[in-house]
Amino acid sequence: MVKSRIGAIFFLIFSAFYFYKSFDIHLLKGTYYDTMTAQTFPYYLGILGMIVSGLILIFSFIKIEKDDFMDMKKLRTYDFKKGLYLVLAMIFYGYTIRSLGFVISTIIFLILGFRILEAKSWKVILLTSFGISIVFWLLLTQLLGIYVENGVIFDYFLGAQS
Amino acid sequence: MMDGIWLGITTALSGYNIFMVAVGAFAGTFIGMLPGLGPISAIALMIPITYGMDPSSAMILIAGVYYGAIFGGSTSSILINAPGVAGTVATSFDGYPMAKQGYAGKALAIAAYSSFSGGTIAAIFLLIAAPVLAKVSLSFQSSDYFALMVLGLTAVAAFAGKGKFLKAAIMTLFGLMLATVGTDADSGVSRYTFGDINLIDGISFLLLAMASFALSEALINIIENRKVTKEEKAALKKEIGSLKLTKAEVKTIAPVIGRSSVLGFFVGVLPGAGATIASFLAYGMERSIANAKEKLKFGKGSLRGLAAPESANNAACSGSFVPLLTLGIPGSGTTAVILGALISYGIQPGPTLYTDHPALFWSVIISMYIGNLILLVLNLPLIPYIAKLLETPRELLLPLVMFFSLIGVYLVTFNTFDIYTMVLFSVVAVFLRIVDYPMAPMILGFILGGMMENNLRRALTISDGSLSFLWERPMTVTILVITIIMLVWPLISQLLFGKIAASEDN
Predict the structure, then answer these.
(1) Distance between alpha carbon B410 and the CA centroid of its chain, in Å?
(2) How far from B60 is each of B98, B116, B315, B336, B364, CA to CA, in Å?
(3) For position B505, what pLDDT does the model report?
(4) Got the DSSP string for chain A?
């Protein structure tokens, strides 16, 4: 696999989509004949994007540098599973930060992160995740005066109306 | 000018600002030391903290982080041969062999003294060059600005390295395309929002910087499964030895520092070049002027080989502030992020910065000197202890980096959509990093995108829709000619030097 070729295909598709969507930019009445409308810049960027990615693609067939080949041996050592789990943990964090509140969702995210990366000592895991979340929460709310959501659970127990 | 300098000194020397530069230098050193995390990540991670601050203090903190990150990168280059920053790769050539021979302390001291001297010499140059350039740039018009931005973006691609020109170019275009998302500043029309209200304001620069650097660098670290090797662990446990230099050693490195600092500064001023290119150039220059006996020492622990890149990379950092502060045009990914930060404080850098916000303009320059002093006085003696932080297990460190990236962006908007967008961008950035596409041109394109479109629109409106603005003003023409030379230079150099190399081979 040639690395620049993979990237070129990605950018070619992206630029083509970007170019196509530039026609969807709704122009205001009276601006149709302006020298430069909201559509002009994206239109030319799309064309340039297609040209440059096309050139990379063409060159990737004509001349391939040695380091442009994907190092499959190295790729096989990559731990994509861990990366995927962490991506899911981040999505989960985004999903719960409002409902569970800053402190609880941060504690869960950090515990998940530490465990995915195979941290072994539960004492360290719990101390770090609870410590960081609570200290950061105190710092935000008490010292910097920044409001962060308590979360539905807290609100329920505290009887707060949302 | 003297009033301005005095104002800068009083602002920079206030207790709070000295504290800020110290915090910045320390935090930067720590983050820069972590392999894989560079100055862009370090700065991006600190930006949310600066939002509540006065812009001068915020910029002072950020400048401290920048220096600290470069210094931190040198430390990990010397101690464990794992540069955290591209600008300190050349440092490891001679720094690591010195550490292996048991002179880690000496190598760190040379790095610190060289960085300090390089930064100081460059700060003095900046003091002279910035106001002069700011005055010249007052006569710039929108067509000149447009041409300058094209030059800046082209230069980034041109300096990207052999075979990477087109890759850097497409990444710049990618950044420009992302910058068009949101409401068009001129007509108020929404573009590429796909009807989603969350995209009306566009993509925030902090989100993009954090996702494509801090978050994706952490993810790449995890995917690559890089563990601290036994050798690295042993190196960290070893005593670093004396930090003292002999008189003869000082005599050896002093002229090297002088030469490399001047070179570094001018390379830093150039758009697109920066600390990395400056350090390699200085290393190469020092090796080529060394005598045959000295030459053999390079790569095996040469003092000159260590002092040259270290002074050059710090001088280049100061140099890169010249186009940023005077023209409002960043020359590198790092200064692009700093520009983004300035804009978010409500300050538009450019020729008027010098007259509109003299306290900020001068205090940043003065604080660079103070930052270098702090690195020398505070960080150097603390290095053995800071280095111990490198032993912090990565399974604890990386989720924390991710947490700070996510929360740093979330706390600005309180919109969970930003978290999802960040995750998406970080995944794309990881993919692009694996297929070897550089990230810095993208962030540069993104920051310059809006400004570039506005200046092009203004220039076209002034010239009544004609493209004649491109050749009507001598300044615009000069800048565009330089751009064209830069564009075709890779081709010419390949034709010229390729032939010479081939004939030499024959």
Answers:
(1) 25
(2) 33, 17, 17, 16, 6
(3) 45
(4) -BHHHHHHHHHHHHHHHHHHHHTTPPPPTT-TT-SS-TTHHHHHHHHHHHHHHHHHHHHHHH---GGGB--HHHHHH--HHHHHHHHHHHHHHHHHTTTT-HHHHHHHHHHHHHHHTT---HHHHHHHHHHHHHHHHHIIIIIS-------HHHHHHHT---
Question: What residue ranges do the domains of chain A occupy?
Answer: 3-76, 79-158
Count of CB pairs separated by less than 8 Å, A with B = 165
Q: Which residue has the higher pLDDT, B350 or B264?
A: B264
pLDDT at B274 over 80: no
B272, B262 Cβ separation under 8 angstroms: no
A130 to chain B: which residues are within 8 Å by CB? none
Inter-chain residue contact B189 with A21, CB threshold 8 Å: no
In angstroms, the separation between the Cα of residue A162 and the nearest Cα of chain B is 16
Distance CA B15, CA B347 (A): 24
- Residues of chain B neighbouring A44 (CB-CB closer than 8 A): none
Q: How far apart are the CA of A157 and the nearest CA of chain B, in angstroms?
A: 23
A63-72, B141-150, B228-237: segment of lowest average pLDDT: B228-237
Confidence at residue B139, expressed as pLDDT on a 0 to 100 scale: 80
Q: Using one digit for the tens of pLDDT, what is the confidence trace for B6-50?
A: 888 888 888 888 888 888 988 888 888 877 778 888 898 888 888
Helix (H) or strand (E) holding B183: strand B182-183
Residue A79 C-alpha, separation from nearest chain B C-alpha, in angstroms = 5
Q: What is the pLDDT of residues A4-41, one digit of tens each?
A: 899 999 999 999 999 999 999 988 877 777 778 889 99
- Distance in angstroms (rounded) separating the CA atoms of residues B369 and B372: 5
Cβ distance A97 to B456 less than 8 Å, yes or no, reads no
Chain B: give the shortest CA distance to residue A52, in Å: 6
| Residue A42 contacts B, CB cutoff 8 Å | yes
Interface of A with B in 127-146 (CB under 8 A): 128, 132, 136, 140, 144, 146
Q: Which two tokens stand for residue A30?
A: 């009276």
Q: Going along B12-160, which residue ranges are E strands?
A: none
Q: Which of A19, A20, A35, A115 to mutate to test the interface with B (most CBs of B within 10 A)?
A: A35
Write the pLDDT tens digit of every residue in B144-158.
888 888 888 887 777
Closest residue in A to B435 (Cα–Cα):
A3
Which of B334, B330, B328, B329 shows the shortest CA–CA distance to B314? B334
Q: Which of A47-61, B87-101, B445-459, B481-495 is predicted least confidently?
A: B481-495
Q: Which of B257, B2, B269, B277 is nearest to B130 (CA)?
A: B269
Tokens of B471: 């050749």
Q: Chain B contact for A95, CB < 8 A?
A: yes
Query: What pLDDT sits at residue A74?
Result: 81
For A26, the closest of B180, B189, B460 (CB atoms) is B189
Which uninterrupted H or E stretch holds B190? strand B190-191
Q: Which of A4, A20, A55, A149 to probe the B interface (max B CBs under 10 A)?
A: A4
Length of chain B: 506
| Helix and strand numbers, DSSP H then E, in chain B | 25, 2
Cβ pair B111, B85 in contact under 8 A: no
Chain B hits for A26, Cβ within 8 Å: 189-190
| b/e B197-226 (16+ beta carbons within 10 angstroms → b) | eebeebbbbbbbbbbbbbbbbbbbbbbeee
Q: What pLDDT does B84 receive?
A: 65
pLDDT at A162: 46
